[in-house]
DNA sequence: GAGGCCAACTTGTTCAGACAAGTTCCGCTG
DNA sequence: CAGCGGAACTTGTCTGAACAAGTTGGCCTC
């Protein structure tokens, strides 16, 4: 939060949040904002570009910017870390490791994690819950170079992300998520406390470091009555894609 | 495609696509690119910012940019329009209207479409398929001001989006999508040709014009064996959020 | 050979100015 | 009063420059 344009973006977010600019109303012009914050127009543009990509405001050449929404989307960190998300909602994240074993990387593992096939990778199955109620089943495969650090994390640690950061300085920076729906299998039903064949929201994701090196990939299954995902997009900025297998 | 920075972005995308820059390799420096395309560094930065937000490349201060992925995500238009998506995959979009009726707006309708409660809104139920195979059930509610134009569209029109653009100049510009999983109900199962209680991927979305005015909201249910969604994100740019109801 | 330090390199931030392109709204005309 | 035209306004594009901040790789030392 050093850069001036980030400070301005944050101030604008807060102003929208406390309805100083209401949904549907128009933001001040770039020139006005530049004068108010005593920066150049370019710096203001960087700030409003951030809000635009977050879907908070809309932008069209020639017309003043319009406030589209007030509640801001989550940060990458809140999405990445189950525990940080729970805390932001004022609920407690719980969780425990069901199993943790080393297996040779399958062809799929080696492609996703950019490893040579047969490397020993760590498979972890975790159940995670909100205030004790299980809502998520995480089947995660960790790359060989991070596996030892993952093993050192105690089984009921609420935030693995936090722990890995403290221990190794690891920062997750990029993610790719594939979302679909599956029927609960026998193990899923048992661990989540639901009936078999109940619909589950499945998110398969790969997370990489800032250098673009894959750290983990995971098959996460959410109880669909407990969790949904939301995505914002626009002509100028689209992160969402529909795919046929 | 007039702006120079968009042309450069497109050239870089194509270069990545044909593996001139391979995944994991480094992009030329901003100064190099500026010289090559004979533009200023600022213009190059606009171009690479687009690729960064698309998740194609990663960026860190001080280090050269890294190519993270080769396949590019869809444009907003391809996501918005089922027909355009199908065409981009080389498949044929089919579809027909099952029912189309006017009803007074419920409180939920009026909130999502920013209308006064009780306004007559158009409910349309469509089945859509790829090469004749049904994959999607669309339950859409249109705002009153666009309903007449929607009614004029013939029931088996493959691209409603295209049609509305031609007839009224309407452009969809922003979207908010909430994704979860549901079990197929009796009507869902019947129209999609699947068993009852099969898991379906549900996407509830609101689409708005460039002015930020809501046009439609829809409950879309996809056969989970036929369609998935993918989302890309990063620390710098996150459009995805996890929510508890 | 291992490790640390430094110089060169690269991206991030910010400025000021100029013109292009699209929107809005007022006032005029029929 | 409806519709049109145009002036004023606002965002988009692009340049060139300067400095800050972070990364990389090679050289030097121990």
Automatic annotation (TrEMBL), chains A, B:
CDD domains: WHTH_GntR (cd07377). Residues 2-71 form the HTH gntR-type domain. SUPFAM superfamilies: Chorismate lyase-like (SSF64288), Winged helix' DNA-binding domain (SSF46785). PROSITE patterns: HTH_GNTR. One of its GO terms (molecular function) is DNA-binding transcription factor activity. SMART domains: HTH_GNTR (SM00345), UTRA (SM00866). It comes from the Bacteria. InterPro entries: Bact_HTH_transcr_reg, Chorismate_lyase_/UTRA_dom_sf, Tscrpt_reg_HTH_GntR, UTRA, WH-like_DNA-bd_sf, WH_DNA-bd_sf. Keywords: DNA-binding, Transcription, Transcription regulation. GO terms for biological process: negative regulation of DNA-templated transcription. This is Transcriptional regulator. The lineage of its organism: Bacteria, Bacillati, Actinomycetota, Actinomycetes, Kitasatosporales.
